[in-house]
Specification:
The protein is α/β, with parallel strands linked by helices. It is 39% helix and 23% strand. The protein has helices at 22-25, 47-53, 91-104, 109-125, 139-152, 175-189, 209-221, 235-244, 251-256, 275-284, 292-297, 305-310, 329-342, 349-363, 390-396, 402-412; strands at residues 4-13, 26-37, 40-46, 58-69, 71-77, 128-134, 155-159, 161-162, 195-201, 226-231, 265-269, 287-290, 314-317, 381-384, 418-423, 426-427. Strands 5, 6, 7, 8, 9, 10, 11, 12 and 13 form a nine-stranded parallel β-sheet that branches. It starts with a strand and ends with a strand. Bound molecules: zinc ion (ZN). Zinc ion binds next to β5. Zinc ion (ZN) binds at residues 75, 77, 230, 268, 320, 323.
């Protein structure tokens, strides 16, 4: 395969900017280059020097656009793509009114393929190269998502959503069928192409203790796969969990009791945590996923980024489509900035870009493989136009450094800011 050399501004991270000063964690080059060989990043450095050293490489000059690692969405629901931005309601009403009727439709494998393909194409158009998705209870919904992702060469994480109570007829499985179907899908897809399987109990209100135990047993048999679920999103949800699991110490304990707390666990939202829950997440090395547009849209609350990061808990960033209100990780970064501001913390643009790329990748246990512009990572790349609209361009024209040039695009940008997206070195 011919080598590919991308020229432009480049931004990569050598460390977590939450733990290392930004000037040491981030490496930005005004005239940089990224050499891609066999779908992976082979070299990153001065563009002219790379061009001189690799005269045979096919060159794509992105000018003053910013070459970044592709965005990694660490939590979303592809079956909710067609009902994103549905008005009103809080979490439980919102699920019953909008989500569950739409998820019913995924018994139809043709419909599942249509929406999976649409979602993945929307993601790529927004510069997102990896999605981590809940599916529905239907195995067909999982097959459709993994097959559509493989056709696009994308690294994805997904799993069959398991629910055996508090969901309507047609959207409930059983403890045994959830175990059997999840196991079969896991064995078929995990590690094939660029697929990672995640055991996926939706959240403890929609699983009986028997089902949670079955999921825990499956995870114990396959500890290398991920486990994704929701945790402490809304206060009335937490009260409901307390009623459903009277012996649990807290919400996290409803997972912990059944073997569903571990280092490969991904806990979406994690807003209203008790001190014990934070301690346990930190102790076991679990990851949490911040979904800021969802948290404001559904009125859930303000995630404590500073507190969670200070405890060393791996943290990803996610759209939570369609509870989230945007497919764009730029808009998601903007919402993360706003939520942090409401908690009294101003996140630096480096924090936001890191969360949307390496932070999410590390949450998925894929640090260094995706979400990175460092040598050896897959060449999943997003190229940002930092002057994509007149409003952004007039602001960027006054910028004195990359961060000033980038921040208006984070706050005001959308898919118009995506100049190019590459998946494993292939432009899409
Ligand atoms: Zn969710």
């Amino acid at each position: 395969m011919t080598d590919l050399l991308l020229l432009g501004q480049t931004l990569r991270f050598e460390a977590d900017p939450f733990a290392t000063p930004v000037e040491d964690a981030a490496v930005a080059l005004t005239h940089g280059g990224v050499l891609v060989q066999d779908g992976r990043i082979a070299q990153v450095g001065d563009g002219a020097a790379l061009r001189a050293a690799h005269p045979q490489a096919r060159v794509v000059d992105h000018g003053d656009h910013l070459i970044s690692a592709g965005f990694v969405d660490a939590h979303m629901h592809y079956p909710q793509t067609a009902m994103i931005a549905s008005w009103g309601k809080r979490l439980i009403d919102w699920l019953n009114t909008y989500t569950f009727p739409e998820e019913m439709r995924f018994a139809d494998e043709g419909y599942a393929h249509e929406i999976a393909g649409r979602t993945l194409d929307l993601a790529l158009a927004h510069g997102t190269t990896t999605l981590t998705s809940f599916c529905t209870i239907h195995p067909a919904s999982v097959r459709a998502f993994f097959d559509q992702a493989a056709a696009r060469g994308m690294a994805v994480v997904a799993g069959k959503t398991c629910m055996d109570r508090n969901a309507p007829d047609g959207l409930r499985d059983t403890a045994q069928s959830a175990y059997d179907d999840s196991k079969s899908l896991l064995e078929t897809y995990h590690g094939k192409a660029r697929a990672t399987y995640a055991i996926t109990p939706r959240f403890s209100p929609t699983s009986t203790p028997d089902q949670l135990a079955a999921m825990g047993a499956l995870w114990a048999e396959h500890p290398d796969v991920l486990m994704q679920t929701h945790l402490s999103e809304q206060t009335d949800e937490i009260a409901w969990v307390r009623d459903l699991f009277p012996s649990a110490r807290d919400y996290l304990d409803t997972y912990e009791q059944f073997g569903l707390l571990g280092a490969n666990g991904l806990y979406g939202h994690a807003i209203h945590l008790e001190p014990r829950e934070v301690d346990r997440l930190a102790e076991v090395g679990a990851a949490v996923v911040h979904c800021p547009t969802s948290n404001t849209f559904i009125g859930s609350g303000l995630f404590d980024m500073a507190g969670i990061k200070a405890r060393g808990i791996r943290t990803g960033l996610a759209t939570d489509t369609g509870g989230g209100s945007s497919f764009s990780m730029l808009r998601t970064m903007a919402a993360a900035y706003e939520v942090a501001q409401l908690r009294g913390t101003a996140l630096h643009p480096a924090h936001l870009m890191w969360l949307a790329t390496e932070g999410s990748a590390q949450a998925l246990r894929m640090g260094g493989h995706i979400g990175s512009l460092n040598v050896g990572a897959m060449a999943d790349i997003t190229v940002l136009d930092l002057a994509s609209t007149p409003a952004i361009a007039q602001r960027t024209s006054r910028a004195n450094d990359l961060w000033e040039a980038l921040f208006p695009t984070i706050m005001m940008g959308d898919d118009r800011a995506i100049a190019a997206t590459y998946v494993a070195g292939q432009r899409v």
